[in-house]
Amino acid sequence: MDRSLDEVIQMKATQREAAIVQGYLFAKLEVLRSQYSSELICAKPSPDEISESRFLRELAWVILSAGMADRVIRSKFPGISTAFLDWDSARAISFNAEKCIANALEHFRHQGKVRAIASAAEKLSSVSSFDVIRLQILRDPIQQLQSFAYIGPITAFHIAKNMGFPVAKPDRHLERLARSSGFESVKEFCGTIASYLGEDIRLVDSVLWRFATMHNDYIVRFSHLWQETSGCSNNPVRLPTASH
To answer: Which domain holds residue 179?
Structure first.
């Protein structure tokens, strides 16, 4: 009797997970049909091959993005990149730090974040080679990345993902989606979907995060997508396609 009950429970859990995966595929299709499709098909870096320049750029993006809308950083980032010499050299940025900071503040008036970027460049320029920093990060990415100013336990996952590590970032959007879908963590949530489809967990993260930013009611929308597929929804709702 107990074995039969366990089998039923397992079957229900498997059906539910399969429905959530189907809901994810609907969400992915919507993102691919939107103006954000290029985010899903751009080349992904490898963490053991990332350059100093690429690392500085990714680090700056994450520092600036903390608590800010994606569209705001997108609009300001070209000017900030120019101010920081297009991330060409940590040593050059460090040597011209005050000038870089002053120029960047004309585009983004947050002293703390702008100076954190300059501080990161100084840290990189203080070692004999970027390989020293890269090897430290490869050994323990989440811990080592938090040694940079404005990088905390959640934003460390953000930059690790952008560097090419196979992780999902536990930001507020994905945390809410994970909990509403019955998962205890973003790692379990995105990992389950990735395992079912054989997809990179970073892609799953990107799809769900972008889907969430496209809709204020993203939790309700995503729940309907997979509940209608599984037959769990008592009141099916036909959701309008996003227009972008």
So the answer is: 19-42+168-230
